Amino acid sequence: MARGNQRDKAREKNLKAQASQKKANTKTGSEMQRDREALAAKMREKQAAADAKKAAEAAAAGKK
């Protein structure tokens, strides 16, 4: 049964690969909160820039 052996070898290889993957989050609560706040600030900046661009385009369209 060569295929059975091949299947077992593939299963062992897959289990070994899964075991080596990072599974748990290693950040503490304060680190996660700080990252979340930094991301929120970045998104607010992007939104403000998009709003400014829309306002500029609307003003330019109004002048035509």
From TrEMBL:
Residues 1-15, 32-56 have a biased composition (Basic and acidic residues). Residues 1-36 form the Small EDRK-rich factor-like N-terminal domain. It comes from Sporothrix eucalyptigena. Residues 17-31 have a biased composition (Polar residues). Pfam families: SERF-like_N. Residues 1-64 are annotated as: Disordered. This is Small EDRK-rich factor-like N-terminal domain-containing protein. InterPro entries: SERF-like_N (IPR007513). It comes from the Eukaryota.
